[in-house]
Design a protein that fits this description.
The structure is a homotetramer. By secondary structure, chain A is of the alpha/beta class. Helices cover 39% and strands 18% of the residues of chain A. In chain A, strands 2-1-3-4-5 form a five-stranded parallel sheet, with helices on both faces. Chain A starts with a strand and ends with a helix. At the B-C interface, helix 7, strand 5 and helix 8 of B face helix 7, strand 5 and helix 8 of C.
Chain lengths: 181, 181, 181, 181
């Protein structure tokens, strides 16, 4: 079983990545930091005669890499009660993948499992629940199994170490993933 | 009372803008199409010593224009059960505005009213509710009054004319706004 | 097409029933006021060897009546951000119906359509959304189609007449139902 | 610090109470099993001239007992994606307490902290989130601090022991509460 971690945060070594490290500790995985990639917002051409134009950015390369793995871990800071615009742009582009005949996006991603790790500063265990429900709908649409999520609480750099509850949940998920590798 | 409409859709003349037209029919307003602007994803520098670096794009100009109006109408197609990445990037940048000492973002926006218009294809009156809850949290955070929302259902170009329920809600909101202008 | 309206409110002539009247105006339907019936809370015996004991109340008679109709309209005031305990007790008892071999509860209800009308006093178009999502899960579980909902705002007796938005939505649904009768 | 646990389940020794036992292990607390009490559904008389009539059941005694404690733990099986009708009836009656001049319900409960423990069989970590959001609104209305929740997954009697994630969360909360006693 191989694992890809998609980081939606926009700052190095932030709390979300800190929590993800606890989850992935000692587990081989591929890290993809979306902030280091160029991913343009989707231009909705679903209904254009010729379909989507090719886009000159890193999206295609990333999605092909992602689809080589069995387990996808999506991580994002909670920005304004949602995933970051950086991660949202990446997911928005799935609409393009759904219409790309050069590979079977839906058939392939439907065989995988997803986990979500998010960290927010403003009562995230309540206020990030709509975010979780959105991702549930998103994963359902493509048949991707939503296996679990961890919501951490942190604001200032390094704060995440003080969230003892997120820590025990991360340790639990670490065990869970190790048992599957 | 002046109205600014912020369009988050990525295609000209789409269903979301069609529904917005019904709402704004005969009402003077400023249109801002985010897809025609350059808005970079936020780079989270909230905790950097020097704060946020200046960003070379259209965000500042747009937010200053927005803040001149009394009523803000946010419109977005429902992309993957959330607002478009284009609109999300715009809102993410509010974190930068909150720390910009050249104007009082929070104090100013807290005096305004917001409406939301979204259109989706997959059971949006249920599956877009997390999106509405997110925007509620977002508006609450800055003190912006959330006065109402309309959820339309449409997929193919032009479909929105078949959503008779969205049409009566749009007519109602049109009356409401006209009474305030 | 026949319609049954299940009222979950606990007071005569309240705002919820007022809004329901607008929706059903001129449309033949069966009214069931749960407050006038005796419905005990469920005693969970799903896992008892002998299954559920017979319960001496009005539930069985009501559910059999309900199942004779094609369209079910559930109405409830928003009590503490949920449906009333009176309506909740009724729905909780569906667990008993699911195991009652004297009729095919799930097979029968799955052929019907449901509408929901709720009225609350505290920002119900936002704060009653979790209630709507709960009923969506509930209807999905038994295969009952969730065709639509109307959320009204009112507190004091008679207040509902001031909710012009709920009124246009009710008129729309009235047309919709009339076209189906 | 004293703790009251309000059980909303309707069966002895069920999974929800099993999970609650892990949370409360070794911690003195008062147990209140609502199923053993008589609590009538509310009859909404908020707008009657004379207010609410006295009700001949156990509600008053229970709420007075509850208010003697500092921490309130609400437990409920997830019935139809909500709290049980038994617990809902109890909470619905708070509307009566809010108007009872013989004690200061809101002023008193606002000084307390609440935890929630729920257990469901159908993907509860997603499908019980609306339930959590409802209780958040409920607690906010009376100023009761919502300190945390645990969602367990179980269906058949005894199943809860297989939910290793709920177990680590329960152990965490047990530590947390012990530190406060």
């Amino acid at each position: 079983m191989s694992i890809a971690v998609l980081h939606g945060s926009t700052r190095d070594g932030g709390n979300t990545e800190g929590l993800a490290q606890l989850v992935l500790d000692g587990i081989p995985h591929t890290e993809i930091k979306l902030r280091d990639k160029k991913i343009l917002p989707i231009h909705d051409q679903r209904h254009d005669e010729g379909g989507f134009d090719a886009v000159d950015d890193d999206y295609d390369e990333i999605i092909r890499e992602v689809l080589k793995h069995d387990v996808l871990v999506f991580t994002s800071p909670v920005y304004w009660y949602g995933i970051s615009g950086t991660l949202k742009n990446f997911i928005d582009r799935w609409s393009q993948s759904l219409r790309d005949s050069s590979y079977d996006f839906k058939g392939t991603i439907a065989q995988k499992k997803a986990y979500v790790i998010v960290v927010g500063g403003d009562n995230p265990r309540i206020k990030a629940l709509p975010l979780i429900l959105q991702l549930k709908h998103t994963f359902d649409f493509v048949g991707l199994g939503f296996e679990g999520y961890i919501i951490g609480k942190a604001s200032k750099p390094g704060d995440i170490v003080n969230d003892s509850r997120a820590a025990v949940e991360a340790a639990w998920l670490n065990d869970e993933l190790k048992a599957q590798v």
